[in-house]
Amino acid sequence: MNESIHQSPRLTLHSIKLRVLSVPLRRPIVSNPSVGKYTEWPFILVDLLTNEGVTGRSYLEPYVARSANYLLPAIQAIADALQGKPLAPLDCYKTAMQTMHLSGREGIGLAATSALDMAVWDAVAKAAGQPLARYLGASTGPVRAYNTNGLWLLPAAQLGDEALSLVAEGNFSAIKMRLGRENLRADMAAIDAVRTAVGPDVRLMTDFNQALDLGEALLRLHALDGEGLQWFEEPIVYDNFEGCAQLARELKTPIQIGENIYGPRSFYNAVQARAADLYMPDLMRIGGVTGFMRCAAIAGAAGIPLSSHLYPEVSAHLLRASESTHWLEWRDWAHPFVAEPFEVKDGAVHVPDRPGSGLEWDEAAVKKLLIHSV
C-alpha cells in the first residue's frame, strides 16, 4: 500500500527582524557592585523570516541595553552569511562559527550565533509541526523548576515575605536567594530569615554572583557548609576553574557554575578541570540550542547534573531532551511580551504541545516596550 509521507519544507532564510525592548521588573535586581541594580531588563527579539513563510523566533537577554549596539550588527552579519542557504541548524551553527575564526569565538560573536541558532531550531521544528522537545527526540511535559524571581541583596527583614510570595507563584518547592553581603553574619541572617518563613521543606539555592575572592570564599563557604543549601553558585570569578575546583573538593555543599561559560569547548574544559559539581549553561553564551545540547551530551557522559540559566521557555524543551536534567531556572521577566507564557504548576514548568519553542510575541505589548528596531 502506498502511503504519502509528510515532509517538512526545506527552509531558506529570507531576512531577519531585530527589536530591542526594555521591560520593567516586578522585583528590581539588587546585587553586588560588580552586577549592579536594575529596575528594567533588556531583551533583543529575533524574527527569522523564511522564503517558505515560516518564522523562527528567539530572544536574547544582553543584561545592559547598550550591548545591543554591538549585538545587532553581529546578528545581522551572521544572517548575511546564511542568506540563501538551507536552514539546517547544525550547518548554520558551523557556518556562524566559521565567520568568527578571526574575530574570536566567544563574547559578542557567540551571543549573536546563539540568537540565530535558537531561531533556526524554532523554524525547523515549526516546519515539521513538532514541539522542539519532540523534534529533538524527547516528549513534552513538566520540568522541575525553582523560582529565581527575587530574594536579591535586600535587608533580611524584607526577605521572609518575598520568599513566601515566590513559593506561592507556582507552588514551588525550591527558590533561589542571593548571598555575598558585606560579611558572613549578614548572609547567615538572610538565610535564617528565608528559612524561618518557608520552613525546612523548601529547597534553597544560593547565588553569590562572583562576589567573593578565593580567600573569602574559603572562609565564608566553609562556615555556611552546614546550612543545608542546595548549592553555592558562582562564589568566585567564573573562569577561575582551579579555584572553583578547590571549593568543590573541600565543601559538602555542591558548587554550581556555568552561566558565564562560552561554548561547548570551554564547558568541556571546565568539566575536565572538575571545576564544579553542577553546571547551568546560559543559552546566549553557550551557543543556543546547538551549544546547549552538545554540553548536555558532555554532562550526561560525565554523569554531571545539568540545569539551565534564564531562557526558561527554550531551556525547558532542552532539559526534556537532556540525559542528566537537574533544575530549570524559572523567571517571568519575558511575560510582558510573550503571547502565551508556559504554565507553571506544582513547582514545574510545563512544555506545551505546540510547534517550535512555543514563543510568539504579543505585538501590542512589544510596541509599548520597544526602544529600537532594525
Report on the biggest sheet: 5 strands, parallel
Q: What is the string of helix and strand elements?
A: EEEHHHHEHEHEHEHEHEHHHEEEHE
Looking at CATH, the homologous superfamily of the largest domain is Enolase-like C-terminal domain
* SSE class: alpha/beta
Determine the mean pLDDT.
95
Distance between the termini: 51 Å
Let me know the number of strands: 13
Low-pLDDT segments, ≥5 res:
1-6
Question: What does the overall shape look like?
Answer: globular
CATH architecture of the largest domain: Alpha-Beta Barrel
Total number of domains: 2
CATH topology of the largest domain: TIM Barrel
- Rg from C-alpha positions? 21 Å
Strand order of the largest sheet: 5-6-7-8-9
Description:
With 374 residues, this protein is an alpha/beta fold. The chain has 2 domains: 13-129, Enolase-like, domain 1 (2-Layer Sandwich), CATH 3.30.390.10; 134-362, TIM Barrel, CATH 3.20.20. 39% of the residues lie in helices and 20% in strands. The chain contains 13 helices and 13 strands. It has helices at 68-82, 89-98, 107-127, 132-135, 156-168, 184-198, 214-224, 241-250, 263-272, 283-286, 288-302, 312-320, 363-369, and strands at residues 13-30, 37-50, 55-60, 142-147, 174-178, 203-207, 231-233, 255-257, 278-279, 328-330, 343-345, 348-350, 370-373. It has a 5-stranded parallel beta sheet. α3 (107-127) packs across α11 (288-302). The longest helix has 21 residues, at 107-127. The chain is globular, with a radius of gyration of 21 Å. Mean pLDDT is 95; it is low at 1-6.
